[in-house]
Amino acid sequence: xxxxxxxxxxxxxxxxxxxxxxxxxxxxxxxxxxxxxxxxxxxxxxxxxxxxxxxxxxxxxxxxxxxxxxxxxxxxxxxxxxxxxxxxxxxxxxxxxxxxxxxxxxxxxxxxxxxxxxxxxxxxxxxxxxxxxxxxxxxxxxxxxxxxxxxxxxxxxxxxxxxxxxxxxxxxxxxxxxxxxxxxxxxxxxxxxxxxxxxxxxxxxxxxxxxxxxxxxxxxxxxxxxxxxxxxxxxxxxxxxxxxxxxxxxxxxxxxxxxxxxxxxxxxxxxxxxxxxxxxxxxxxxxxxxxxxxxxxxxxxxxxxxxxxxxxxxxxxxxxxxxxxxxxxxxxxxxxxxxxxxxxxxxxxxxxxxxxxxxxxxxxxxxxxxxxxxxxxxxxx
Amino acid sequence: xxxxxxxxxxxxxxxxxxxxxxxxxxxxxxxxxxxxxxxxxxxxxxxxxxxxxxxxxxxxxxxxxxxxxxxxxxxxxxxxxxxxxxxxxxxxxxxxxxxxxxxxxxxxxxxxxxxxxxxxxxxxxxxxxxxxxxxxxxxxxxxxxxxxxxxxxxxxxxxxxxxxxxxxxxxxxxxxxxxxxxxxxxxxxxxxxxxxxxxxxxxxxxxxxxxxxxxxxxxxxxxxxxxxxxxxxxxxxxxxxxxxxxxxxxxxxxxxxxxxxxxxxxxxxxxxxx
Lengths: 381, 274
Description:
The complex is a heterodimer of chains A (381) and B (274).
Chain A: H1 10-17, H2 25-46, H3 49-75, H4 82-98, H5 104-126, H6 131-147, H7 153-156, E1 162-163, H8 173-196, H9 198-208, H10 210-215, H11 220-246, E2 248-249, H12 256-269, H13 274-304, H14 309-318, H15 325-340, H16 344-356
Antiparallel strand pairs in A: 1-2
Helix pairs in contact in A: 3-8, 3-11, 3-12, 3-13, 4-5, 4-6, 4-11, 5-11, 8-9, 8-11, 9-11, 12-13, 12-15, 13-14, 13-16
Chain B: E1 2-13, E2 16-27, E3 31-35, H1 42-50, E4 57-62, E5 65-66, H2 72-78, E6 80-82, H3 95-102, H4 111-115, H5 119-138, H6 154-167, E7 172-176, H7 184-201, E8 204-208, H8 212-218, E9 221-226, E10 229-234, H9 236-241, H10 243-248, H11 266-273
Parallel strand pairs in B: 3-8, 3-9, 6-7, 7-8
Antiparallel strand pairs in B: 1-2, 1-4, 4-5, 9-10
Helix pairs in contact in B: 3-6, 5-6, 7-8
């Protein structure tokens, strides 16, 4: 690109002069925000109960995404066993309502706390190791949990699972989706405050360099454990909500594929960006729920093409459970993300988010500076 | 009264004696320069003081209290601040965010209060911001407050790092090659700022730098380390002209040295001596 190296466009100057003034003003932002939020609320009300339940499922995934972001994005440690925290939360919720015969209002906090407790144990391991080794430990943790805790008859009801009936005030799929949305909003608020205050900053400092963090008076041990606990708390909360979304808690869905999906959705969403993580998580959840429909539609289209009739039959035989393709699609998206947008969906959403915050709607932000992830500078002695 | 006392500190790494019986004492309000060739043990000494290394022998006292058993973050809480050779800042944050982070110990709300968004934390955050801006103003960095660290020149990053450590409100400041990457003029301005810091903020400064004229100009007292031992110490003019120091710097006339003295091949020289 040899052209225009020294050319200064007069337009540029005019544009930068506008820098301090919000484009469109605050009323426009308020209206847009109300339309977006209101649109979502109305949408939930008008769609079929099945769709509402699936969207509620997506809200729960968004909470898991935020939980992953705390570990992966803020502390910089990967968890390949996150399905275990979600599962423990789900079983705890089922246990509290079915075995202890307590309320939804008790079950969800209990689920969140059990997730936090489980994560705290795993966090202990993270004090000594990190990176790949820790990923391995979390992977093992998830696999072991699947075969031990999840099969405890007294706790999980064995193979038949635990029923988790919804409270009477949120008995329908639609009302329960609103409940999930409310929890997501609370979680987003918590995440926002976390990164804007002392603890969130300290965790990020620990991610970048434990030595620098310590030299600023930050207790590395404390904040690592805190990040694990918060992440586990949110994952357990999501598990609790999930139990009531499905209605019956069984061990089967909490397998490694789910953990993989959690990692993929968070990275594709963009670790740095809260909005991206939410969008990525919801996208994966909806993909997961609607993939069967999409796949069927795709096969039916194939049938219409003359001459290749055998192909769709072959695919029907070869891929019995199309749900297993979701991680594959996710992996493909991950590669695309890493190549073109290291910041994930969040990076693509930046112009919009920036505008809502009072900045300019600047499309160049999509390609703007990519903030580096994880331990950027190793501070050696 | 001495703020920091180091008595007979020794530390070795797998047979290499990095520090051998180092004794030095730093008085309140003093600016102390620490010079010596590469590998002399200067940064190792800092790491012992801040707790990243535990010395094999010897005692380190801060304001009369033995601190050798304290974890690094607890020493920081006592008022020992340090900078790093490689810039000790969080790269993914902006300049202002780094200064907010550095005020970690000054924050008086609980972690959980911040998480749940309790009202007093909003007020406290505003206060932190104001204090951060004051420090940035003091270091003439206010314009950069909202810029990300990525892409800033090395010398600027070093200045930001000093600002961040100042924001931790230290009693003693350990600066590890703060002027690295700065031009002569920048380094001179930095030296003036160190004197100013001492005067206005009443802190004690220990400074490692290869920029000997800068250290001489800034310091009240100097130590020269070589092979992990104190070669000599005294007034800056005495130390810089001391024959042992000149020899340690391989005959380079320190008066004319404007930049960093060349690194010696330490092990070879040592082997020949023994």
